[in-house]
Amino acid sequence: MELLVNQVGHWQAARWAAPAAGSDVPRAALVHRLVQEVADLAAGAEGQPRREVPRLDNDLALPDQLRVVAADLAAARPASAAVVRAAAEVTATRQAL
């Protein structure tokens, strides 16, 4: 996830608003979807209910949100299947950006 955070951490608002490759979905929406997916994996690993990750007004907060949910996932010591799924989601998101 650190590669993705490094890839997008310096982006300004216009770059976040631009559509992801080959779609009309804004990059910010795609990364927020990833944040939610990782948060869901962390909740599952902790045996907690899923909670909606707020979609903040400022897209520049997305890298920080990703860092937080990634740390939550790591702290939960998830099963290997959850780690593999998180890695696949990150890879797919990086490729789509």
UniProtKB/TrEMBL annotation:
Protein name: Uncharacterized protein
Native source organism of the sequence: Micromonospora cathayae
